[in-house]
Amino acid sequence: MGYRTAPDGWWQEFVRAVPARTGKLAVTRLDGSPHVAPVWVDLDGDDIVFMTSAATIKGKSILRDGRVALCFDDERPPFAFLAVTGLASVSTDPDELLHWGTRIGGRYMGADRADEYGRRNAVPPEMVVRVRVTDVVAKVDVAGY
Q: Crossing angle for the helix pair 114-121 and 94-109, nearest 10 degrees?
């Protein structure tokens, strides 16, 4: 009761919101158990882009099985959330690492620190992860105000 489906194009605006929302990435561990971790994200068209190390649980899972889910929420009344599922691909191209590291760093830490975060994150074993979204569930005005 009180739930409304989000309008077309809403989810992209929700992800791009300022201040930037942290995505919660869900993947599966090698034994099949779930793993959730926060990620800083940006959009490239309708693709969600983030970075992670190939040596993390997130990275290992994405390399093994590209299926992922991400959740974003607005914790302020009347509340809203977005859950997406998709297929992830990765790149370790140095130019892409620097580009996305800088762009994402700037979203979360501010333009004055973007280059610092870009350089810090543009090194192996970091990888750029691009999620092609295949399903979206979004609700606005959860509290029914």
A: 140
How many other CB atoms sit within 10 Å of the CB of residue 113?
A: 14
CA distances from 93 to 35, 63, 67, 72 (A): 26, 15, 21, 28
Backbone region of residue 141 per phi and psi (left: phi > 0; alpha: psi in -120 to 50; beta: other values):
left
Q: Minimal CA–CA distance to 141: which of 38, 5, 17, 9?
A: 5
Give the pairing of strands 4-5 and 126-140. antiparallel
Global pTM value: 0.93
What gap in Å lies between CA 105 and CA 113, rounded to an integer? 7
- Taking the chain (145 residues) in runs of 10, the rounded mean pLDDT of each run is 60 95 97 98 97 98 98 95 97 98 97 97 97 93 84
Q: What share of the chain is helix, strand, coil (3-state, %, to 5)?
A: 30, 40, 30
pLDDT on residue 136: 94
Domains of the chain listed by start with CATH number: 4-140 (2.30.110.10)
pLDDT value of position 3: 39
